[in-house]
Amino acid sequence: MISVISVDDHEMISLGLKSMFSETSDIRLSHFCKTREDLVPFIESKTSEELKDMIAMVDIKLEGQSGFDAADYLIEHGIKCLMYSSFSNVGFIVKTMEHKIKGFITKNADRAEIMEAIRTVSRGETYIQKDLLSDMMYVSGILVTLTKKERELLDLIAEHLPNEIIAERLGLSKRSVENYVSRIFDKFNVKNRYELGRYL
């Protein structure tokens, strides 16, 4: 039996998962909570043997905090994580892989794909929503060509910060930031931040 922990600040999502899993013979919702802090007493009440058969479905954006922090905590305790989001930004998928998280799906995934993702991740394998794979491979190929400074800028662009603030954060002139941003646009083959946003 696969025991799933749902970490989502919208209780209706967790209740919907519980209802969906009730129709299966091999998956059940064992716990749901809204924040990383809510996870702690539940996880600490379990033995390592009990935790090894659990996986967690974690929303990327929790109220007032990042789902990645919750996932990092869960992974430290040996729990495999499947991230999900209302957004299909490829940048989230890449970040998911960087955090050693086993899978990513969006909230518009159908029932069959959700089940497939859970079962795949529970086996210790990686699962990325099928219709997002091509974009993920494209972005991953570009990211390896970025310099360390370009990657730092890309992360700040993803936070929707203007060039002036990025310059202050990185101790660069505004002109230098503009040059870096222009090179990033070229590598992604986009003309502006709006087009780049598809990949962040």
> Roughly what fraction of the amino acids lie in strands?
15-25%
| Gross geometry | elongated
Mean pLDDT: 91
Distance between the termini: 36 Å
Uncertain residue ranges: none
Question: What are the secondary-structure elements, in order, as H or E?
Answer: EHEHHEEEHEHEHEHHHHH
Oligomeric state of shown chains: single chain
Instruction: Give the strand order of the largest sheet, numbering strands 1, 2, ... along the chain.
Output: 2-1-3-6-7-8
The amount of helix comes to 40-55%
- Overall SS class: alpha/beta
Structure description:
By secondary structure, this protein is α/β, with parallel strands linked by helices. The protein has eleven helices and eight strands. The protein has helices at 11-21, 36-44, 48-51, 67-76, 90-98, 111-122, 133-143, 148-158, 163-170, 174-188, 193-196; strands at 2-7, 27-33, 54-59, 61-62, 65-66, 80-85, 103-106, 127-128. The protein has a six-stranded parallel sheet with strand order 2-1-3-6-7-8, sandwiched between helices. Strands 4-5 form a two-stranded antiparallel ribbon. Helix 2 packs parallel to helix 4, helix 5 (90-98) packs across helix 7 (133-143) and helix 9 crosses helix 10 (174-188). The longest helix has 15 residues, at 174-188. The model has no long low-confidence stretch (mean pLDDT 91).
